[in-house]
Amino acid sequence: MKGPCVLAWLLSSLGLCRLAHPETQGATQCQRAEHPVISYKEIGPWLREFRAKNAILRFVTKDAVEWECDEATKKACYSKGKSKEECQNYIRVLLVGGDRLFTCGTNAFTPVCTNRSLSNLTEIHDQISGMARCPYSPQHNSTALLTAGGELYAATAMDFPGRDPAIYRSLGILPPLRTAQYNSKWLNEPNFVSSYDIGNFTYFFFRENAVEHDCGKTVFSRAARVCKNDIGGRFLLEDTWTTFMKARLNCSRPGEVPFYYNELQSTFFLPELDLIYGIFTTNVNSIAASAVCVFNLSAISQAFTGPFKYQENSRSAWLPYPNPNPNFQCGTVDQGVYVNLTERNLQDAQKFILMHEVVQPVTTVPSFMEDNSRFSHVAVDVVQGRDALVHIIYLATGRSSALLWGVVYHLLTLCFKF
Fold first, then answer.
1. Has residue 271 been placed in a domain?
2. pLDDT per residue over 155-181, tens digit each?
3. What phi and psi, each to the nearest 5 degrees, are found at residue 5?
4. SS3 177
């Protein structure tokens, strides 16, 4: 398992919250030009390295439940040209729903999911296919969440070679839906980062190859959303989202020629403040640089009410197109489940996906920038200072490969006031 969970464990184990607490270090700590940095060697004695494969780990009680692939599944994996390291069961989904733990593993490129008792992880209530819920390959990025209604939203590769990425809903009482298949204007080789259940919508954050960029191949970061009560189309967009929209996230260093951090790596949501923190980096083939940008949820919502960016055909320019439904809201049962499913609505939903407006962060300059570093994970804590709330950001660099989670090479803390 990756992301904030790894950081939370590290921080609680090391007591690092005390390092940047304004009450213990004074209000001037937030104005420091240099912020505390803890190297991997310094925290090494307190670190435990672990591999998130073939077992489910519970850190509170320090116990583990083995969950390995059977030999027949491994042999089938080898026969498809995969290595011994790849043909293991890497845990990629770990979600709590009530008194149950829903978890999925790659299972040697034959993904599988189980429902277990939260109090006794060896007690399996049911086992289902992990296809469209968990990636086949441990190298593929994915994200998933469970809603209060029991629906599972997963953004992952749907097939063995990883050529069919999708945002997919399953389980629960609502019909299964997905993004359009093999349509680069919906998703174009995405790397999924995170997902959140917020109000009437499910939000997804990812980076992908930008189809609207005409000057060579480049990656843009996106925020996308769907209505949770979307039921799909009739005849057109059947079994497909009718409410899927996406917008570009901008994180850049301003100037006469802005310097862009285009590739989103990690996010952290503060629901009490409607703020989303994101780590953005440069491309792996360019000079290493990282930045933290903060986005207000209202700015993201506003982008979804504006015009679309639309291309009539492959030879046409991308131009703004008025939003045919600028006051769009998720339909309600009282309005009728098919209120937005006229033929014109479905035609619009099929071709208008990308928003024209770019989502800007809350400050014109990134909240934090560092050259020669590639940050991979972020976690944020909000504490009450003497005269204001102080946001403490924990950043980590290290291996982001799915083959080894939990190794952190460098931990940095900083704080500032909004």
1. yes
2. 999 999 999 999 999 999 999 999 999
3. -65, -40
4. strand
Amino acid at position 382, single letter: V
- Say how far apart CA 233 and CA 219 lie, in whole Å: 30
In a domain, 156, yes or no: yes
Lowest-confidence region among 43-52, 99-108, 230-239:
43-52
List all residues 6 or more positions away from 239 whose beta carbon is below 8 Å from its beta carbon.
175, 176, 177, 178, 232
Q: What is the mean pLDDT of residues 339-362?
A: 88
Q: Please give the residue range of the domain that contains residue 286.
A: 51-382
Check whether 72 has a pLDDT greater than 60.
yes
pLDDT value for 354? 96
Using an 8 Å Cβ cutoff, are 113 and 102 in contact?
yes
Instruction: State the pTM of this model.
Output: 0.86
Q: What is the CATH number of the domain that holds 351?
A: 2.130.10.10
Buried b (16+ CB within 10 A) or exposed e, 361-372: beeeebbbbbee
- Say how many domains are in the chain: 1
Give domain status of residue 143, yes or no. Answer: yes
Query: Which pair of tokens denotes residue 194?
Result: 């995170």
Asked whether the beta carbons of 34 and 412 are under 8 A apart, the reply is no
The structure tokens listed for 31 are: 């104005």
